[in-house]
Amino acid sequence: MQAIEIKTNSHKGYIKLHVPVQEKEVRVIVIWDNENDNNRNYDINQLKNLFNQATKADIFKTISNPMEWQRQIRNEWQ
């Protein structure tokens, strides 16, 4: 499988692709930035609130040696 990325703008809901490909089946994946859309499947304010709560919880305050703690966690997976 090979892939190329082409960045283009849509015009009235359509995009034009000028891609030099052989006559064979190709797959097209369309990704767009919807940061300014109101059609999110999450509530940004609720997420910010949860992140703030997690920061205040200070759940890692008992870890005195982070590298040793990570080693122990990884050893549990073996």
What is the makeup of the main sheet? Answer: none
Measured distance between first and last alpha carbons:
34 Å
Q: What does the radius of gyration come to? A: 23 Å
Strands, total number = 0
Number of helices in the DSSP assignment? 2
- Give the overall pLDDT as a whole number: 78
Helix proportion: 25-40%
What structural category arises from helix and sheet content? mainly alpha
Task: List unreliable stretches of 5+ residues.
Answer: none
- Percentage beta strand: under 5%
Order of helices and strands: HH
Q: What general form does the structure show?
A: flat
Describe this structure in words.
With 78 residues, the chain is mainly α. It has a domain at 44-76. 32% of the residues lie in helices and 0% in strands. The protein is built from 2 helices and no strands. It starts with 43 loop residues before the first helix and ends with a helix. The model has no long low-confidence stretch (mean pLDDT 78).
Based on the model shown, name its key terms:
78 residues, 2 helices, mainly alpha
Brief overview, please?
The protein is mainly α. The chain is 32% helix and 0% strand. It has two helices and no strands.
Please write out the topology.
Elements lengths: L43 H14 L8 H11 L2
